[in-house]
């Protein structure tokens, strides 16, 4: 007789159904515990996108909120901050209201000068200047395990490469990475079984970032360094010095963005490539296919699911929205929408409408780090395939997937012949 005792799962609190939501619009979707997540994060979200699913559904979980299920809706919400504000961009609402980083929680025109300050350090021209440094980090890491015939990609590469690149760009020591990674995890996947507990977890992590960056900001104010933080804190906003609270939020946001998103996107990408050697062979056969294929990777492996705040009552894609409602925007569902992409779960290096996705969001909040992210993925693929041209998942490997504001994956054991054949 099987005597195993199953650990009881916590009962997820359910919000009452609002009067303006129709029963047929309700779906049980928990961004932090997606049904079917054990099969894969993107696979779990794709299960939501059935032919009979409305473009907007309402979930009673994580405090109760709308979820956009189609690419066209996600795109439209991102592009119209006048109707869909960034004043609360996290669910549950308690976590979103505790979030204090700027300029992501701002709307234009207040948002605009802060975004210009960020772009000054992360524009394409600036990123291209450090390509050699980025490539050197990738080569050092890959050479460190290429002869071993295997590695845990999530731990040994993805969890180090973009973090090391970004901390160097910010002029911060790599020794601080474990502490910062722990804070980032609590920001994007806050612990707790109730919205209130998740709100407190996020608030504590937000404070942790602020406590960390405060003395760094103080040391770099008035400096002439070329690191990203010095450039940011000495930027003027509307002709005046940036206020101290905005500096805390801006520098903390830079760290959060640089420590979690590319880390996880890289691992999702490599799981797919390890299981699809034909795609790897196609990349190796044509350097241009590899470079063009990077955008296809971003379409296929989006990891962010943030939210927007409904500004006023309105009818929108068949739903009655009320001021104050929140709409979750799972960016994965734009790239995986089969009404916009043929066979969307497949990585097709020749896909023509590959740029039709919201992986970097849209509109005024389009990701400031997208040029750095693209270069990191290109460099990773180029240097990896030079040294490890064929590889696979270790037999019996079961990656561990986590959903949240930023999705994550652990346990990505890859194997190859030590001579690279």
TrEMBL record:
It comes from the Bacteria. Belongs to the cytochrome P450 family. InterPro entries: Cyt_P450, Cyt_P450_B, Cyt_P450_sf. This is Cytochrome P450. It comes from Rhizorhabdus histidinilytica. GO terms for molecular function: heme binding; iron ion binding; monooxygenase activity; oxidoreductase activity, acting on paired donors, with incorporation or reduction of molecular oxygen. SUPFAM superfamilies: Cytochrome P450 (SSF48264).
